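Office hours follow-up: a student asked to see two folded examples consecutively, so here they are.
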Amino acid sequence: ANLRQNNSTLYTRRYITLKQLYRATCGMLRGVCMQAFQWTTRSRHLPSRFYNNANPVRSINCTSATISTGSSSIGVASVGVTGGMEVVRVPCLSDNYVWLLRDEASGRTAVVDPAEAAPVMQALESRGWSLDAILNTHHHADHVGGNRALKTAFPAASIVGPRADRDRIPGIEVQVGDGDVWHFGSQRVEVFDTPGHTRGHITYWMPGADALFPGDTLFALGCGRLFEGSPQQMWASLSKLLPLPDTARVYCAHEYTAANARFAVTVDPGNAALKERKARVDEARARGEATVPSLLGEERATNPFLRPHDPAIRQQLGLGAAAEDWEVFAAVRAAKDRF
């Protein structure tokens, strides 16, 4: 009996040791990859600056702004002017979209989630614009990789980011969070805390321009993976966006729509609007066209992550009327992770 107990203890210790080694190795590799990405981004462009975690504020006013991003097969393009604000789509990396904003009344310019600096600076230069604000939704390297180089190139530009993630946003100067309201030129900007993808994620809403910048919280026909948050948190975050108007343009940060559509029809196969949208998305991507921005009303009608109340989706997932909406959302998210 003592021998069996000793052997059991030995196996347990070996298991714990191997488990600890596995976790440590994964953590080290994640750190190395993140550092390599940031170093590569900085070395390709301009010198970096140290983080600057300034004091939080409840109200700010940007004196000017500029935004732009890199290039891809889709190309840099203006997606139009709404409510006195022009939005320019700048593709970066493999599937990122960076958004350059210009307030027509003030001539101020801002950039949202600059994955890298060079494409943004090229877009700014081609338009003769300067940069006054750098807006981050969360800390991931493909959303903040251009912060330092852009700040070096445009020292007057303010780096704005989530208060809850202030220690992970390079160069953050202005910290904002849920309920904060500030102004970008003539545009009112409202901030929502939207944790789930990351614990400090925020979303920017500009009602005058019908412009929503959800980062990786909401995608066209999808939502972000839950790297740091729970399904309850993510559903609560998405629920904050649902009351916004149907006409709100969703400027998400990735071109994932075609892949999201392929999944969406598996959990909502009877949705005629979804089938029609999938066909349009497939045709657009076949032509090499972007599918972002989308309209929030269209997302409400076709995005399964926003429709956990729908009886057809519940039935498809084997969930009944008694299930909470967040539980259905969790099932949709789990199914997408396996897809």
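And the second, which I mentioned at the end of office hours:
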Amino acid sequence: MAWDRNRPVPWSRLVRDWVIYIGIMVIVLAVLGQLEAGVLAGLLVSGPIFVAIGALLAKFGYQRKTMRQLRAEAAANAAAKAAAAPAAARTPSRPRPAPTKRTAGGGGRPTGKKRR
């Protein structure tokens, strides 16, 4: 898609995603004992970069789907797939064959006789 200056940019969503990322990284780094001034500065610098790249992608037409949208699509696809399959295809056309020695229904344990 081409650049469109009229496309909306979800600023609040971008900032919220970045804040969640910062929170997770601060917790992980605090647990690992690597929370230093340089690391915090790097995390703070990542915010404007993340938001700028997200805004640029939004202007080009990229819009990440929400979990609700993904679940709705999956449910719709499953329903369409179930409706499209004929009833005969859902049930086997013939019964399973009887178990034999070679399949799991025969004698699984060895007998006392030796094979020749």
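Two things to take away from it. Residues 11-80 form one domain. The mean pLDDT is 86.
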